[in-house]
Each structure stands twice: as structure tokens, then as C-alpha cells.
Amino acid sequence: MEIIVCVKHVPETAEAEIxxxxxxxxxxxxxxxxxxxxxxxxxxxxxxxxxxxxGGRVTIVTVGSEDADKTLRKCLAKGADRAIxxxxxxxxxxxxxxxxxxxxxxIKDLPFDLILTGxxxxxxxxxxxxxxxxxxxxxxxxxxxxxxxxMEGFTRVNRELEGGxxxxxxxxxxxxxxxxxxxxxxxxxxxxxxxxxxQKELKVLGLNDLGLKEEEVGExxxxxxxxxxxxxxxxxxxxxxxxxxxxxxxxxxxTLRARGLI
Length: 262
Description:
Layout (H helix, E strand, L loop, with lengths): L1 E6 L1 E3 L22 E3 L1 H17 L2 E7 L5 H10 L3 E5 L9 H12 L6 E5 L10 H9 L3 E10 L3 E7 L5 E7 L2 E5 L11 H7 L3 E5 L39 H14 L4
Parallel strand pairs: 1-4, 1-6, 4-5, 5-11, 6-10, 7-10
Antiparallel strand pairs: 2-3, 7-8, 8-9
Helix pairs in contact: 2-5, 3-4
């Protein structure tokens, strides 16, 4: 079983103070901690679980700078067999379409039975790279996947839908599956895993290695360009009512009446 997992090295912004950089098109990352994208972490775990059950090999692929090696080594420590980093100055500014094209440049020449991605990335939330990549490869795909059952010649998956519903569908293989959080419980990286990761292959490829031209990637090869980023202004603030029960009750009634709600 040959499994490829596409991952992304992203900043952790949930508890951080975000500021826009001088270009106005990105955020300042100097003080931010970077790690594997949350959704991709589940995809890596699912790939390793399948390998442990059926045998085979797991290959990790990312588009990013040398800093992304931290994420690649983490994936290798969890049980992946090899990792590929796609790095080139020409890749800067690539949207989901251009990023999928970059990934396609290397994956089309690799053996695979299954490709796993996260449903979306925590930094841009496009949720498009996986499905576009499947289109380039000409293979079926499914998104928001919460369960994977590998059968002879096809894969049965459970997809998360709105309102707590799930859809069960069968997808022919090879296929690309974009997994949702909660499909499993990602393991912690062990000391033994870290030691083994140092011995595993980490290949770096650039624009020329993928047979792409500069105009096919980056901003020139993208369908979407960022014009401006900004921090949403605070338009409303919560008001904390203090005092006794009677005073607070009177204030609530007064506020509702003033706004025409009663």
C-alpha cells in the first residue's frame, strides 16, 4: 500500500496577537510558533494506521521553506517513511490552484494507492488544494472524511455533512481523501521515533525538478490574489452587569425596552 500525505507547516494563531506585515498582504510571523496543520496531523495518523494494518509505505509531501523540515521530521517520527519538500522562490504567493499544481508536479511521478490531505489549512482555510489536486491527477476524491474502510478495488468512506449528518459513499481507488479532525487520535512523537526520523529520507525539489515554469506558479500562476489583509474592527463589546439581582433585572428590562425588543 503506497500512501501519500500532503501536509502544511502553519503558524499557530488561536491564542496569538496577530499583526499585519508591511506589505499589507500577510501577517507578521516573527513571534509565532509554527507546527503541522491540525487537519494534516489527522491525515498523517490515518496513513500510519493503514500502513501498520496493511503494510506499505507513507510518503509526506509539503510546499514550503526550510522551516517546514520541522513538520516533515515530526511526520517521519510518527511513522512515515520518507518526506519531500518542494521549495523555490517562485512558489511564493501561490494560491490553492498553484499549490495543487506544484504538488501535482511531483506526485504524478510517484506510485500511490491513496492520497490523504487535511480538509483545510488553519492559516488560509481554502479547503481547495486536495480537490484541485485530484482533478489534476484525474482520480476520484471525497472531502470531510471521518472514516475510511479499504476494500478490494474501492474505498468506503463516511463524510461529515451539515447538521450532524454523515454520508457513506464508495470511491474507486486510487483516490484522494481530505480528512476531517476526529477521524482518529494523533499519536505523540516518541523519543525512539525522533531517533528513527533522523535516518529517513528527506528530499528537496525545486521548480526545475518539477518541470514547471515560473509563470505557472506563484502569483502569476494563481487564480486568487490577496489584495489586502486587515484585522476586523471591534464594533460591539459585551457589557458586564454588576450589582444585586433587582438592579441587574431592571437594567436588562431597560435595555430591551430601549432597543424595542419588548
